[in-house]
């Protein structure tokens, strides 16, 4: 792990899927349905989830570059229909984020999800909408993680917070790479789509096993 520097923390950006909201089974079942319906193939969970964290068209292209449109349509129809049944809440997320807000730290969400899908999740968990200052979704940038543009858009929306005075928290190696490219601290969390071992290989500044542990670390930065 790296030490992440000693600049005071002004803002924290969070990934969404697998970090703040448990959509892992929703994503897995939607992927399984789409690839089964369109490609007539059964794929292992590891393969279906290998690119979670990148935009959905990128993930579908990895399955079959000539059937991206069909895969997307199948995935999205299933995902919308089964959203409420399969989405889950991680415990005490709002309370953990409130600790950052109470310390005067701004909070943003930067995700590769479509705005429509984010809104569905926020309807299920309205406290996340209330506590988050800005949202950056797939439609807000032309480049996506692991490139830095989505994170930089988040910092811009937060009154141009300097990246070196902030951090990005996510559950995928793509998140760590995006944080590095954006010049901000990279905090990995091990309860999402990727194992702790895979995240350690990406060399985050810090790897957290629960959200309170991540917040404890964030609050200690710069002190």
How are the elements arranged and paired?
Layout: E1 11-14, E2 21-22, H1 24-39, H2 45-48, H3 56-63, H4 68-86, E3 88-89, H5 93-102, E4 106-110, H6 115-124, H7 126-131, E5 134-136, H8 149-157, E6 166-170, H9 173-182, E7 185-189, H10 196-201, E8 206-208, H11 211-220
Parallel strand pairs: 1-4, 1-6, 4-5, 6-7, 7-8
Antiparallel strand pairs: 2-3
Helix pairs in contact: 1-4, 3-4, 5-11
Summarize the structure.
The protein has 223 residues and is an alpha/beta fold.
- Taken from the alpha-carbon principal axes, the silhouette is globular
Taken in chain order, the helices and strands follow as: EEHHHHEHEHHEHEHEHEH
Count of separate DSSP helical elements:
11
What is CATH's topology name of the largest domain? Rossmann fold
Return the CATH architecture of the largest domain: 3-Layer(aba) Sandwich
Helix and strand composition category: alpha/beta
Provide the gyration radius in Å: 17 Å
The main sheet comes to: 6 strands, parallel
Number of strands: 8
End-to-end separation in angstroms reads: 19 Å
- Report the uncertain regions: none
Q: Class of the largest domain in CATH?
A: Alpha Beta
Average pLDDT score? 94
- Strand portion, in percent? 5-15%
Structurally, how many domains make up the residues?
A: 2
Strand order in the sheet with the most strands: 5-4-1-6-7-8
Question: What quaternary form is this?
Answer: single chain
User: Which homologous superfamily in CATH is the superfamily of the largest domain?
Assistant: HAD superfamily/HAD-like
Helical coverage, percent range = 40-55%
